[in-house]
Amino acid sequence: xxxxxxxxxxxxxxxxxxxxxxxxxxxxxxxxxxxxxxxxxxxxxxxxxxxxxxxxxxxxxxxxxxxxxxxxxxxxxxxxxxx
Length: 83
Known about the structure:
By secondary structure, the protein is an all-alpha fold. Helix content is 63%, strand content 0%.
C-alpha cells in the first residue's frame, strides 16, 4: 500500500451504482409480473406517475426513492460512454 498516493472517492460513482441497482431490480420485478419494463419505466420517467410501476417486490417504493432526473442522468452517461 502506497501511503504517499491519494485515492479519490467519487460520490457520483456510488450514486450511479445505486441507481443502476434499483433500476435493475425494478426492471426484473416488472418483467416477472408480465409487464414490458421499458414501456413502464419510460412512462414513469416522462410523466412522474408511479402508477406505471407495479408495487410487486416493492418496485414502486424503490423507484420513487430516486430522483427521476438522476435516473435520466445515469442512463445518458452510460449511453454516452459508448459513443
